[in-house]
């Protein structure tokens, strides 16, 4: 039975990066442009991992959720949506020419926006383009983030026919008043029935996303939501903490009229979700994910092979260097990050003119690549072996310590609080350390002192 040490969580509840990338996206700069990205893509062919991941961003939503921080648009006509898809296809065709056909595509991920709100015909056009321009592995993952409000049996039949084999359902909450407050519609098909059908037709790794910390949520109401989610029997369950940053995402101010749960109430919600998921037989992954013991995420964690990118957790077998397409999409290569224009208008104009629409990016040096691996290992596997990382980069162990600018005083607090151990140059996160893992990662981040950007609280 998990019960959080409230004093411990309060002690470490400070602002910090989420580390979906290293360095964080706040370090991306506009000096990095189209030609830099082309060069980075060509370089990536001789770097690891060899496998290819593709991210497709569909920025359209039938209606905007007031809590969401994604790059989305509503009220666009069908002609604009169709033009966007044509431009997206042009970008895929051009960029893919620089990706070696000797490399295997192992992962395709569609995000948004609401990808399943556009027509199946348009989804098929893009999918056919990806298949024509990349060399698919025999075993691949093709996943889509879906809103259950616009998902029916006909759509999932068509997705399966196109080769999709994974779906993530953004539930957020089952309660009508919560959904109304965040401007979100309920599921078109009962979630339990949809999951049963998805499994029947061959989908695996089916994921349900919940969010805690929203208006009208109470500890008891969220327990009911978690219970309903577990009863639906997904392969994976995620309980995201709502990050209220209206100074960055202005539409979030609309939620303040309803009031929001207190930090202590949010901790209780996470506590309950954890205990309920574990009792139901799930394995805890990271800070807020849960997976069935036979799911590939749980197995990867056991083998210390779990990985993460902007799309979330993945395994080393399925993940590759990520090539992002569409507005605001981010490419995550071994040597660089690249982000596209965020507005549809600018994105389409630039792709039509130049074939690419890079607005900013970042080239990593070897020290930053080492730091990235240290932080990834801690965030995903709660374990970072500096000896192995030194071997991976063909450097000395001292070079790894130098890269992260290690000093024992930076981690002493975590050691004293029973959250971190060090033995034979290996760092292991223990106890409730996983719930302050962002803080622990910050101790290995020399770029933090540069103080770029605004970050949400870590707990």
Q: Any overview of this molecule?
A:
The structure is a single chain. By secondary structure, this protein is of the alpha/beta class. Helix content is 37%, strand content 19%. The protein is built from 16 helices and 17 strands. It has helices spanning 6-12, 34-44, 78-96, 120-133, 153-162, 176-181, 191-200, 219-231, 263-279, 296-302, 344-354, 366-381, 386-393, 397-403, 408-416, 437-442, and strands spanning 52-58, 105-112, 136-146, 166-172, 207-212, 236-241, 283-285, 289-291, 306-309, 312-315, 321-325, 330-332, 336-340, 358-363, 383-385, 420-423, 426-429. The strands form four sheets. It has a nine-stranded mixed β-sheet, sandwiched between helices. Helix 3 links the parallel strand 1 (52-58) and strand 2 (105-112). Helix 3 packs across helix 11 (344-354) and helix 4 (120-133) packs parallel to helix 5. The longest helix is centred in the N-terminal third of the chain and has 19 residues, at 78-96. The radius of gyration is 21 Å and the shape is globular.
Which shape, going by the Cα principal axes? Answer: globular
Distance N terminus to C terminus? Answer: 20 Å
The value of Rg in angstroms is: 21 Å
The amount of helix comes to 25-40%
Instruction: Give the class from helix and strand content and strand pairing.
Output: alpha/beta
Number of helices: 16
Query: Low-confidence parts lasting 5 or more residues at pLDDT below 50?
Result: none
- Main β-sheet: number of strands, strand sense, barrel status? 9 strands, mixed
Give me the side-by-side strand order of the main sheet: 7-8-6-5-4-3-2-1-11
Strand content: 15-25%
- Quaternary structure type: single chain
Average of per-residue pLDDT values: 94
Total count of strands: 17
């Amino acid at each position: 039975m998990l019960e959080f040490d409230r004093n411990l969580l309060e002690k470490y509840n400070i602002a910090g990066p989420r580390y979906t990338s290293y360095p964080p996206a706040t370090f991306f700069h506009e000096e990095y442009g189209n030609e830099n990205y082309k060069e980075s893509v060509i370089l990536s062919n001789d770097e690891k991992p060899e496998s290819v991941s593709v991210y497709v961003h569909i920025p359209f939503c039938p209606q905007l959720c007031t809590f969401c921080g994604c790059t989305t648009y509503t009220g666009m006509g069908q002609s604009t949506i169709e033009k966007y898809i044509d431009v997206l296809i042009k970008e895929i065709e051009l960029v893919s020419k620089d990706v070696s056909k000797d490399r295997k595509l192992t992962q395709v991920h569609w995000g948004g926006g609401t990808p399943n709100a556009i027509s199946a015909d348009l989804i098929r056009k893009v999918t056919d383009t990806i298949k024509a321009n990349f060399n698919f592995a025999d075993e691949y993952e093709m996943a889509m983030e879906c809103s259950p409000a616009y998902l029916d049996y006909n759509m999932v039949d068509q997705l399966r026919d196109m080769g999709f084999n994974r779906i993530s359902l953004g539930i957020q909450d089952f309660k009508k008043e919560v959904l109304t407050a965040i401007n979100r519609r309920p599921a078109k098909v009962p979630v339990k029935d949809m999951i049963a059908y998805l499994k029947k037709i061959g989908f695996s790794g089916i994921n349900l996303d919940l969010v805690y910390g929203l208006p009208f949520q109470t500890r008891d109401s969220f327990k009911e939501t978690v219970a309903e989610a577990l009863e639906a029997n997904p392969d994976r369950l995620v309980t995201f903490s709502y990050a209220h940053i209206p100074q960055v995402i202005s539409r979030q101010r609309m939620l303040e009229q309803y009031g929001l749960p207190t930090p202590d109430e949010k901790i209780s919600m996470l506590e309950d979700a954890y205990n309920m998921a574990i009792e139901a037989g799930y394995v805890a992954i990271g800070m807020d994910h849960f997976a069935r013991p036979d799911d590939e995420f749980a197995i990867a964690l056991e083998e210390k092979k779990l990985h993460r990118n902007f799309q979330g957790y993945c395994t080393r077998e399925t993940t590759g260097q990520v090539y992002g397409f569409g507005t605001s999409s981010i490419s995550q290569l071994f040597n660089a990050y690249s982000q596209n224009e965020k507005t549809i208008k600018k994105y389409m104009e630039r792709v039509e003119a130049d074939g690419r629409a890079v607005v900013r990016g970042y080239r990593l040096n070897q020290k930053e690549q080492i730091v990235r691996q240290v932080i990834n290992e801690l965030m995903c596997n709660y374990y970072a072996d500096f000896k192995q990382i030194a071997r991976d980069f063909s450097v000395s162990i001292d070079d790894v310590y130098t890269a992260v600018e290690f000093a024992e005083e930076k981690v002493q607090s975590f050691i004293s609080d029973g959250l971190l151990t060090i033995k034979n140059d290996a760092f292991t996160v223990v106890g409730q350390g996983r719930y302050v893992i962002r803080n622990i990662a910050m101790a290995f981040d020399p770029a933090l002192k540069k103080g770029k950007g605004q970050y949400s609280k870590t707990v």
